[in-house]
Amino acid sequence: MDIMDKKTTRPLIVPERVAVYVYCYSYKGTRQLAKYGDVIYTSQKSNYSLLYTDQEDLPDLLKKLKTLKFVKRVRVGHLKELDKNFSEAFAQTNLEVKEALESL
Length: 104
What we know:
The chain is of the alpha+beta class. It has helices spanning 3-6, 58-67, 86-103; strands at residues 17-24, 38-43, 48-54, 71-76. Helices cover 31% and strands 26% of the residues.
């Protein structure tokens, strides 16, 4: 019997991630956001940070972030809600343009 036959493979479970935009009063507080998720981008000029966190932790995280002194506003990214089928949108736009040209 081969060694590979004895091993069982575990399924790869990737948790759903969601983007959270945190607007701060100053740039100083953005360093503390690393405790709450993976900080991807921080804008020093606009005083906001983009962090990613698990979908299941989101309700608790939003409550925690809103209670911090340096946080002005918290927004959740809506990328999952958008329709990513662009071919239908392109076809619909072409149809609307053709109808507009024919009516002239």
